Amino acid sequence: MSIIFSGIQPSGNLTLGNYLGALRNFSKLQDANECYYCIVNQHAITVPQDPQLLHERTRQLAAIYIASGLDPQKATLFVQSEVPEHVQLGWIMITSSYVGELERMTQYKDKASKRGDSIPAGLLTYPPLMAADILLYQADYVPVGDDQKQHMEITRDLAQRFNRLYGDVFKLPQILLGHDGTRVMSLQEPTKKMSKSDSNTTATIYLLDDPKDIEKKIKRAQTDSLNTVRYDTDCQPGISNLIEILSAVTDQSHEDIEKAYEGKGYGAFKKDVADAVISVLEPIQQRYHQLVGDPELDAILDEGAKKAHAKANVTYVKACRAMGL
Ligand code: ADP
Ligand code: NA
Question: Where, by residue number, does L-tryptophan bind (predicted)?
Fold first, then answer.
């Protein structure tokens, strides 16, 4: 039995990328492992958020976790800000970090470059807080998307640095990539990852999108004029992204998909990608709409916070003792 930790920010509507890269692996792990799944609202506030929306999205994200198969009896589901050890150990991790290594993070560079002269300091200190999230639970594995590799490396570096200075407190966690590390790209700029913070909504498939919209978005997805369904991310990034999506939702290899569409046009291919995506998302949407207004959700999150706190506190106290705090 391993310990699993992962988190998602309540910072927008969840995308197909979040589902295929992270969420759908969560429920697969819950039977055989001790799992902690977190709604990382303190990561979300590293950029300004509307308070009312942040609150609603936190709740919606909890409902999405459960609608995608997470069973609160088998896994601990909780909200980051309800377990104070996250920011407490986060501060210790910040003091163990170097400005230079934080400035080198590609996510920081991407997000900071969009903020002109007013770069929120929390964007820079995001990775040490993420390290604290994971290390508090002594996690063995962290199921996240391929885009989080660099943050996982710095998490291990910070843990090792701490252990070297103060003794063996933290387990070194490993990234756990689902389905060969599926990375879903933007439908309109297929060299950029699909993200819930992208303002171009036609480039993004949201988990709660109406099936008609999903079909429209995929139909209009950027492709090329080569007219062959081939996986080649350099020459055909748009088609490759659609192959990757179809492969992830139907569990077929890229080669099998290429063969199946030999001599067929992009129209038929896109239609099949849309149908396959819709058939995966529809049942999730149905469960979501039943759950989201249910007061039982609050009870689930309260219970989750208690369990998470009990586990996190043990590690936090150990870290404090080791440092002389
Ligand atoms: P976003 O970048 O959409 O705001 P988060 O940073 O909250 O998403 O990430 C939540 C999880 O979803 C992480 O495990 C991340 O690796 C995964 N993820 C996000 N976008 C993608 C994508 N386009 N493809 C695959 N996985 C993704
Ligand atoms: Na992220």
Answer: 133
